[in-house]
Amino acid sequence: MQPVRRRYSMWDVSFNIFNYAIISLIAFICIFPFVNTIANAFSSSHAIQSGKVFLWPVGIQFDAMKSVFWDDNVIRAMLVTIYVTVVGTAINMVMTILTAYPLSRRDLAGRKYFMNYMIFTMMFGGGLIPSYLLNKELGLLNTLWSIMIPGAVSAFNVIIMKSFFQNMPEELREAAIMDGCGNIRYLLRIVLPLSGAVMATIGLFYAVGHWNSYMGAVIMIDNPDLYTLQVRLRNILLLSQMDTSLEVMQQQGKLQVIEESLKAATAVFATVPILIVYPFLQKYFVKGSFLGSVKG
C-alpha cells in the first residue's frame, strides 16, 4: 500500500518559511556575539581597529591569547575556579540527593510541609546584607567556603530530583527490602545507578553556576589569591589589570595586543572550558530534565 503523501497548501508553505526565517534570525542573534568574540580574539589589531572583523578572524594572530595564558594571576584564578567547581558541585550533589530522596518517600511524616518551606525559599531570599553578616559570623569571609556553602542546596534542583525519585516503581523498594536492603543501601545500590540522567543534568546546573559565580566572590572575598576566574577577568576587562611582565613585553614590541582583542581573548578563555564539558552531558541534559519534570 502506497503511503499517503500530504499535500501542502500555499499557506502551509508560507507559514513554514516564516517559521524557519524567524528561528534562523533568533539563532543568529544568539550565536553572533560568541562567534564575533572568538573572531576578535584571534584577529590582528589593525583588522579590529579598522572594523573588518565580523564572523571570522582577519589577519590571524595569537598575541591576545598569549597575554592571557602568560598572566600568572589568570592561571591561578583558573585553578581556583576549577577547585570551586569540582568541590562545590560535589557538595551540591550530596546535599541535593540527601534532601530529595527522603522527600520522595511517601511515608515521610510532614513531607508536604518541608516541601512548602523549600518552595518558600524560591520566592523570598534573605538579601545581600544578611547573607554577608551570616558568612561573617560563621567565619567564612575570605575563604572559598563562602562561595560553596551558602548555595549548597538549590530548591529547584531538589524538586527535579525528588520528582525523578518519586517516579521510580515502588516494587523496586519492596523487592530491596525483602532482600535485606536498608534505606542507605537501597539509595546507593539501586536508586543512584538508575538516576544517571537526572544526576548529570543537575550536576551540569551546579557546575555552570559555580564556574560563572561572580557576585558571591566579589562580596565575600578580598584576598586576590582567592579570586575566581570571573572576578579576575572582570578586573582585566574593566581595570586592565594584567601581569606587569606582559606590559613590559608589549612595550618591547613582542606582543601586539589592543584592548578589544584582550577583552575578547579573556571572554573566550573563560567560556571554552565549560563548552568542552557540555557536549558530553548533552544527551543526559534533555532526558534528565524531562524525566525529573514529570510528577508522580
From TrEMBL:
Membrane topology, record value: Multi-pass membrane protein
One Gene Ontology cellular component annotation held by this UniProt entry: plasma membrane
Annotated SUPFAM superfamilies: MetI-like (SSF161098)
Domain of life: Bacteria
Keyword terms, alphabetized: Cell membrane, Membrane, Transmembrane, Transmembrane helix, Transport
InterPro entries xref list: MetI-like, MetI-like_sf
Principal subcellular localization: membrane
Gene3D superfamilies with a match to the protein in the record: MetI-like
Annotated protein name in UniProt: ABC transporter permease subunit
Species the sequence originates in: Paenibacillus sacheonensis
